[in-house]
Specification:
By secondary structure, the protein is α/β, with parallel strands linked by helices. It has 2 domains: 156 residues, Rossmann fold (3-Layer(aba) Sandwich), CATH 3.40.50.720; 205 residues, Dihydrodipicolinate Reductase, domain 2 (2-Layer Sandwich), CATH 3.30.360.10. It has 12 helices and 17 strands. It has an 8-stranded mixed β-sheet. It has a 7-stranded parallel β-sheet with strand order 3-2-1-4-5-6-15, with helices on both faces. A two-stranded antiparallel sheet has the order 8-9. β16 and β17 form a beta hairpin. The two termini are 33 Å apart. The C terminus is likely disordered.
Length: 398
């Protein structure tokens, strides 16, 4: 097995040293990743986009440069990533997206991180595993809330309940900050579509935006209505990595009127077809933008694991405001660890084992996030997980 290409460990100043390229860094999630990188690393950052639109990064502005680049153009990509230590792809949606950027990183020996959530994209990327390893690079595929953070939380919980039979992943973002067009396109593309999910060791077919359910997150997020929505990579990665026989993924808005609106979209799509649904994207964005004036930016992700003997453990990451930063934490953390030479084995990085519980909890706390747990759906949420000190040190994986 070849050793991974190492990057310099010398101290970097804002004008030189380690260099990251962020494709899609001007989009909704991309700019959050860039902001987190600027706050928690000393790297220089190049934001690559087909249509660069400068944003204000305040005191860190001198460490950011912009360039026009289309990741489907091999010559353009080559010129941008030449000499970079790693690239982060935030250019969604990932449904049907090509692997051109990952292929370019393999050819040119550049470490790769993306925030993909789509099952097909992740499966196709994983097939490149031998070539990624041979190139001596790291590839974090799906390094965001799903399947990245969900894999870590599922592993931490499964270690406490003696295994992993069932996993439930539930996300509820706030409505105050309107997502970009790519996020809406990704969500609406799955409404009413057939999904094949693992249930009790077999496969079940359901449709996107069904199985309505009310769940409770830690305060102040509280109770939310959620639905089975997307064909996420967790349906493959969790059975493979943790042996889960059942996996479910649900999402829902803090405003139930928006959930009901998505149900209406499902009915329209089934009756009039996807072209009519695509026309609804601008309307839905405007509606959410208006309703967002009355909403919050609280956000949370919850992962509940049931062990083989029926024991349960749920872990939740939440933030009282600006919950939209949660998806940006893992790609930024992964980039920082790559730059500092903390990873040793090249290839596709296993999403459930690359960072310790103690390290993740500390990084979450640094960013104003809470990590809570409970052992039954009716029991109260507690600061945790069990065995963790308030400082995030001395964790026991019992």
């Amino acid at each position: 097995m070849p050793l991974p290409r190492q990057v310099s460990r010398k101290d970097a100043d804002p004008g030189s040293g380690r260099h990251l390229v962020v494709y899609g860094g001007g989009g909704f999630f991309g700019r959050l990743v860039v902001r987190d990188l600027l706050q928690h690393t000393l790297a220089r950052i190049t934001i690559a986009s087909r249509n660069p639109r400068r944003l204000d990064f305040g005191a860190h502005e001198s460490r950011v440069q912009w360039t026009r680049s289309n990741f489907l153009d091999a010559d353009s990509v080559r010129s941008v990533i030449r000499g970079a230590d790693a690239i982060i792809s935030c250019a969604g949606p990932y449904q049907g997206m090509s692997l051109d950027l990952l292929e370019a990183c393999i050819r040119h020996g550049v470490h790769y991180i993306d925030v993909a959530d789509d099952r097909d994209f992740v499966e196709r990327a994983y097939r490149l595993g031998p070539r990624i390893e041979q190139a001596g690079i790291f590839a974090f595929v799906g390094c965001s809330v799903v399947p990245g953070m969900s894999a870590l939380l599922a592993r931490f919980a499964s270690e406490r309940v003696g295994g992993c039979d069932r996993v439930r992943i539930i996300i509820s973002p706030g409505t105050k900050d309107t997502r970009g067009p790519a996020s809406f396109a990704s969500l609406l593309s799955t409404v009413g579509e057939e999904l094949t999910v693992p249930r009790d060791g077999s496969r079940k077919v359901l449709r996107g935006w069904t199985e309505r359910e009310r769940v409770e997150f830690p305060a102040p997020v509280g109770r939310r209505w959620v639905y089975s929505v997307m064909d996420v990579a967790d349906y493959v990665t969790l059975p493979q990595n943790l042996g889960a026989r059942s996996v479910s993924f649900k999402i829902g808005s803090e405003m139930d009127i928006l959930n009901r609106a998505m149900e209406m979209v499902r009915w329209i799509k089934s009756g009039l077809g996807p072209r009519m649904t695509n026309r609804l994207i601008p309307l839905m964005r405007r509606a959410i933008g208006f309703l967002g004036k009355f909403g919050t930016s609280r956000g949370a992700v919850m992962v509940e694991v049931t062990g083989p003997e029926g024991q349960r453990m749920a872990l939740s990451v939440s933030r009282d405001s600006e919950g939209q930063i949660i998806p940006a934490i893992l790609p930024s953390l992964a980039a920082g660890m790559v730059l500092e030479g903390e990873l040793r084995t090249s290839g596709i990085v296993p999403l459930h084992t690359w960072v310790s519980e103690e390290r993740l909890r500390g990084e979450l706390m640094r960013r104003g996030c809470s990590l809570n747990y409970r052992t039954e759906p009716s029991s109260p949420w507690r600061i945790g997980p069990p065995g963790a000190s308030p400082s995030g040190e001395g964790l026991e994986l019992s």
